[in-house]
Amino acid sequence: MGLKGNAAIVGAAQYRPEKYATAPRMFHLEQVADLAGRALADAGLKAADIDGLVIHGPQFHEAQVFVPAMAAEYLGLSLNFAEVVDLGGCSSVAAVWRAAMAVEMGLCQAVLCVIPARMAPFGPDEDPSWMARAMRFGGHSTAFGAPEAEFDLPYGHMGQNTGYAMIAQRYAAKYGYDPVAMAKIAVDQRTNALANPDASFFGKPLSIEDVLASKMVAEPLRVLEIVMPVAGGAAVIVASKEVAARARNRGACITGFGEHLYFKSPTYANEMTDTPIGPAAERAFAMAGIKRSDIQAAQLYDCYTITVLLTLEDAGFAPKGEGMRWVREHDLTYKGNFPMNTHGGQLSFGQSGTAGGMSQVIEAFHQISGRAGERQLKRCDTVFVSGTGGVMSEQGALILQGA
Amino acid sequence: MSTNKPLPTPTEISAPYWNGLKAGRLTIPQCKSCGHWVFFPRRHCDKCWSQDLAWKEVKGTGTLYTYTLTRVPTLPDFADEMPQKMAVVELDEGVRINTTLIGVDESEIKVDMRVKPVFDTVSADGTTLLRFTAAGKDMAERIDSTPAALAAAAEAAASAAEVADRRQVRFDDEAAMKSLVSEAYSAWSNQIVVDQALIDEFAKLSGDDYWIHTDPERARKQSPFGGTIAHGALVQVLQSRLRIPLDYEVVGFNNMVNYGSDRLRFPAPVPAGSRIHARTRVKAVEKLPKGMQLTMEIVTHVVGSERPSVINDLVILYM
């Protein structure tokens, strides 16, 4: 069952993370074309090679429906496969395996996966306060009949912070909690960001004390354990073996994937501290036919430090309930014995909306293709990547292996 | 009475649940086929997919599954609940509910503690939310948290804070007057509710009927605040209705003149339905040829909000 590893990431591009206020405003279609062009140039391929598209659908500026057709028309592409993903922070991982599937089924030779995440210019009739309004409830639906509008918002349950904090608090009650170990996750990732000139926090060292002294947002989560939203955008090209053979970079073959979701609010999870990355990772490893110990780098979705901790445990790298001890005992930097989020993770790179998860996919590709600069691992053939959307509600895993 | 906090809009499916809460009863659907309890309410059982469900009244006792205390409000409108005691409660029937805890100290909150329901009426139309408190608490099962009820409760607290024998300070005693200057603020005043009716009256009086103040429907859709807000000038003049407890009294003068304001700022909005209160400090005292000039900083806040909605450096001349 599953993929045979005949599709590979061969090119990638992402905007440097920037503050929303100062980032260039571009139409989403314009960003899609620009990012696609850069990813193609990275791969050494031409536009005519692309015959598939996976795009993030929600919040697309120029259209609410028919997004792929509008994008194909704008790009001037002829597609055999067009797919919209709507899995929040899991969308990047989800886009890559969908593209790989389309390639392995013989539908496509090269698929563009793209997520624009810069703001669009405001039209004359557009009210600039729309964003403040859209963000007021932190992504919670306010639609009539939406369960969260009716049963969460009146109590102040909204956005992501308190959901993740409540998962962390339950974890603390079940297994214990070590704020120093949690801070170490952010600090080790910052060490990685200091070797990544593209990271938002490049040149800004961080200590355990800094994290522990930062403002408490929702107990036990402090502000330096929470990602900073930035403008950005990212694209990757997933291609067949034949196309990959004439691409410029060493390809990162998609040899395993998994996806799992069954709730939106973790309140309704069977057990809040057993996250959906468990079954997703299990499937990915089984598909790739490799062991956890074969992984040379892990790029784990990190909207919060608790996301990383639970992913380390539930994906099978650390024993359940012992993740904090495990973190204390491992060096998570690119120089360490468990290189993780070697680009700094989103905590130090910046979270460019839904494209944030693509930073993890792209870092895996850069490590495998030997282009990670100062933070390049000596040997990097096998990488685990995770994606997380909502409040640990939609999760996915990829195994990428060098061609 | 309006409030800017989000309120539930019952649907045909959920109406029995909300009507039950209004009556102080917790009812949830149970599957007649497999016995599974269903929450939130649905037309089908999310376990066996039977559509044969029955509404059943339950006691509402359960355990605290998890919680968090917020140090930043999840929405500015929840500032009066800080820290929000956000909770997930697992009822004895097994279903989990997103809620908040009430009537417990921060240090008392523990995962797995036993809890019981509190039916909390939050708006004048009777809308009632289901909150929880510790099982052992001696707390009324039904409470009234409508803004008017909360303001009335604060009224009593403010009256109690008023000092009966205030220190008398002669206006022409420069040293005594200067000793009033302080970095520290007074205690809080009584509270009043700035509701839409009051805002509408002020709009009529002042002629400032901009939609962001007067059109709740449009403001709900278009305003970044999610609803109407009070005029800054209205909140400023409402300082006359806020009695700030002071421990001193300036005496001995023939006349007291309000010279206006050295600084007037509206740093934060007051959403319609908010409760406001104020406190003050003496910022400066200066002896002038005409008399003694006192600058009093009066700050008005939405209850619970760290940022003031009005800062007014009021200048008073005692002669």
Overview of the structural elements:
The complex is a heterodimer of chains A (403) and B (319). By secondary structure, chain A is α/β, with parallel strands linked by helices. In chain A, 34% of the residues lie in helices and 17% in strands. Chain A has one domain (7-119, 227-402): Peroxisomal Thiolase, Chain A, domain 1 (3-Layer(aba) Sandwich), CATH 3.40.47. Chain A has a nine-stranded mixed beta sheet with strand order 3-2-4-7-1-8-11-10-9, sandwiched between helices. Chain A has a two-stranded antiparallel sheet with strand order 5-6. The radius of gyration of chain A is 20 Å and the shape is globular. The model of chain A has no long low-confidence stretch (mean pLDDT 96). By secondary structure, chain B is an alpha+beta fold. Chain B folds into two domains: 15-145, OB fold (Dihydrolipoamide Acetyltransferase, E2P) (Beta Barrel), CATH 2.40.50; 148-318, Hotdog Thioesterase (Thiol Ester Dehydrase, Chain A, Roll). Helices cover 18% and strands 34% of the residues of chain B. Chain B has seven helices and 15 strands. In chain B, strands 3, 4, 5, 6, 7 and 8 form a six-stranded mixed beta sheet that branches. Chain B has a five-stranded antiparallel beta sheet with strand order 10-13-14-15-12. The two termini of chain B are 43 Å apart. In chain B, 35% of the residues are buried. The mean pLDDT of chain B is 93. The A-B interface holds A 127, 129, 132-133, 136-138, 142, 144-145, 147, 149-159, 161-162, 165-170, 172-174, 215-221, 265, 267-268, 272 and B 5-11, 14, 40, 65-75, 78, 81, 84, 86-88, 96-100, 110-112, 122, 129, 131, 222-224, 226. Chain A: It holds the Pfam family Thiolase_C_1. Chain A: GO terms for molecular function: acetyl-CoA C-acyltransferase activity.
